[in-house]
Amino acid sequence: ESDTASEISFQFNKHKKTPSIGSHSSDMASVSSVSGSVLSVYSGDFGSVDAQGTVEFALDYDEKNREFQVHVSQCKDLAVVDEKKGRSDPYVKTYLLPDKARMGKRKTSVKKRTVNPVYNEVLRYKTEKMVLLIQKLNLSVWHNDPLGRNSFLGEIEIDLASWDWSNRKLNWYSLKPRSLSAVNSVDHRGVMNLSIKYIPPGSLGKMCPKNPPSGEVHIWVKDVKDLLQLRPSGVDSFVKCYVLPDTSKKSYQKTRVIKRDTNPVFNHTIVYDGFHTEDLKDACVELTVWDHEKLTNHFLGGIRLGLGTGLSYGISVDWMDSTQEEVAFWQEMMSAANEWIEGLLPLRSL
C-alpha cells in the first residue's frame, strides 16, 4: 500500500501521571512558536460600518536589505464607528497574500478619536523580490476596540506582479468593502489526502499471525495538494507525525522530503501500537507539513486528529483542538474498527 512504512511502540500509561506532558513541550506541540501568529485577515467583529474614505501610502523594495516596505502616510474621511461619541480609533493592517507562514501581519499604531489619522509609519517585510511577484498586498483599516471587537473600515488590494516598482510616491486609494477572496487566500494552506485505521487488541483472531497484542493506529499519508510556495523554485516538503501527549523521540516519525513540488506524493504509512480503545478519547494524532531548508524548517500547515475536547487524561491542553472535520474523521475511525477511513482534510495554522 505504500513505498515506506514506520512502526513504533506507544505507551500512554506513563503520561497519565505526568501533568507537565499536557503543556507545550516540543516544536510539534507548540507550532505557534515556529510559525508566528497567522490569523485571518478579518479577525474581529465587522460591525455594521460601511467602508468609506481613502488611504495614502507608497510601496518600495530595498534591494540592499532585501526588504519590502509599505509607507503608510494617512487616511481621510473614514467611517464613524461610535456614532454616539462621533469617534473612531483607526489603525492600518497589512498582509501579503497568500500568507507565507513566516510573514504574518503588520500594523500601525492606533490613532484615537479621529477619522483623519496621520501615521507616517513604515511596515517592513524581509523577503526576496521574486517572492513578492507571486503575491498580493492586502491593506485594511480597522477601528480598535478595547474589548477586541474591532470593526472593519475598508481595504485595498494590490497585485504586486503588475506593480510599477519605479513608483515610490505616496498615492491615495479609495477604501473598498471587504473581499471574501482575501480571507480564503490567507486561510488556505493546502489539503492532505490520508487514510487511518484502528485495530483493537486481539480483534483479528487467534489464528491471524499479525494479530496485535495491543491496539494499533495506522496512518497512511498519501499526498498533499496546493502547498504554500515559499520560494519561486517551489517547496521541499515533508510530513512530521506525533501522537500527543507524547512528544518524545519514540513518538516522532517523518516522511522523506519531496523536492520542488507544491503537490507532493508521500505514500508513507506509520503504525503506532500500544493503543487501547480508551486511549483514543485522550490521544491526538498531529500531522504537520514543513518546508525543508539547511538551517531551519518552516511550518506550512497541519491537522490534528482527535475528539477536540480540550482535555487529555483529565488535563486541560490547548492541542486538543480538532476542527469539526478532523473530529468527524477520528470518530469514523473509532466506530469502524479494522477498516481504512479515507479523507481529504484542509491544512491549518496550529
TrEMBL record:
SUPFAM superfamilies: C2 domain (Calcium/lipid-binding domain, CaLB) (SSF49562). PROSITE patterns: C2. GO terms for biological process: exocytosis. One of its GO terms (cellular component) is plasma membrane. It is found in: Endomembrane system. It holds the Pfam family C2. GO terms for molecular function: neurexin family protein binding. Residues 51-173, 188-320 form the C2 domain. This is SYTL2 protein. It comes from Crotophaga sulcirostris (Groove-billed ani).
